[in-house]
Amino acid sequence: MTARTPIGNAAVCVIGAGPAGALIADRLADAGREVVVLEAGPRFDPADRLERMERSIRPAHGPPDVWETGGNRDAYSDSGERPYPLNHARVKGVGGTTLHWQGMVMRLHEDDFRSESARGVGVDWPISYEELRPHYAGAESELGVAGADDNPFGPPREEPFPMPAFPPSYSDSLFTSACEDLEIATHSVPNARNSAPYDGRGACAGYGTCQPVCPSRAKYDATVHVERAEKKGATVIDRAPVRRLEHDADRITAARYTIPGGETHRQEADAFVVACGGVETPRLLLLSASQQYPDGLANTSGLVGRYFTEHLFAGMGGTLDEQTRQNHVGFLTSESHQFYDEADDELAPFKLEFLNYAGPSPVEEALAGDDWGDPLLERLRGSYGTHLGVGALVEQLPSEDSYVGLDPDVTDDRGDPVPEIHWSIDERALRTLERANDLQRAILEELDAEITWRVGPENTGPAFHHMGTTRMGADPADSVVDPDLRTHDLSNCWIVSSSVFPTGGALNPTLTIAALALRAADRIDVAL
To answer: How far is CA 118 from the centre of its chain?
Structure first.
């Protein structure tokens, strides 16, 4: 049975065992620091991954079921103009959301760090791409990234990827031909999954269930660094949700957490790292309100929870009169950043994604009818394997009107107010969704595809990349953390999460989270 009592003489208390918390814990444990990690969710048994994979492909189970998300523990409220299905794509547990992510890892473009200067909208980051560049390389090495230097639109890099890129899929070849005729360049997708044995883990075995389960561990997840940190002496306490950060005038003194059975403990430390993601991080700070900080901890700017930002999805797909081999690959192998840096104050950056999992799976196709035996086989031969689709991710501008707050009328299983998500979408993003749809339609028409579905401005949804709620900046009046990710208000508290992103760009955030975590770990070690 795991001991869940506090440890003495802790130098660092890390709250959250996702990729940011795990990398911080590993790096600081390697530096000889006494590290304790408090994780709200359980430690999942690796031996259960095959069973979870099987559960994920059965129609009776939705995405939250696979990693046991939902119920009173994960309750939330939704008050914005657009619905926000928070529990559809989050995991509470050791490893965090990397347990079910797709695993795509791109570096932000240079102009993403200078949005106001280069595009006339948003704000500039207080750090540049060049400052983060060596940490990007470190993050690619730590996570294990398979990629190729074939993206002519990406930011400058000299460092080789740790592993070669995955080859293009069969459906990629169909898209490539159409894109060449339309003068749209395609290139490989960097993936945090092993294309060859790496870091003691085997190469991808091709299960195709990457989101939500990789049973072989070829896809990186944060348990890699949690286990590494523990071998170096770190202590990881699971099922220990932190409910409040105790503090004096300018320092956190303890993290108060509850363990199964209801017993409450206080973990003291010299430094605290809040790494709970873009929703639970502001929630914890708001729950820690006090006489000293009546509006929430680290919130003298009034911006904790504000500027909740997402990536928006645009997509279009249909069928061909030939085989496309859909669902043979469970992740993306080709994309296009050609239009990314055309962004300005009217149109947002976006990337095109060529989907390897468009259309129903064989199980879904079979269940769509009531035939059996040879008639079913004949139907599947005629309908399965002919689907294809093109996706896109689009940047949303940060706005104070999109926020994560507390709902005092709804409480979780411990009696604490749940997070309230208030989400809206800006007109620039809506225009860009239309632009992405136009390109997607042109590609599909070039293939003579029958278009059967579209996701655009009227029915877009989030990519579940929670950003912006404790934004980074040099001025304490308009930001929550400084360029080193230390809170302006509290000298021994750092926030390491996508919540610190001042703007989101249109690229998957995990590699940037990892790079910021490595950079912050160096600075925390110096500060101790």
So the answer is: 25
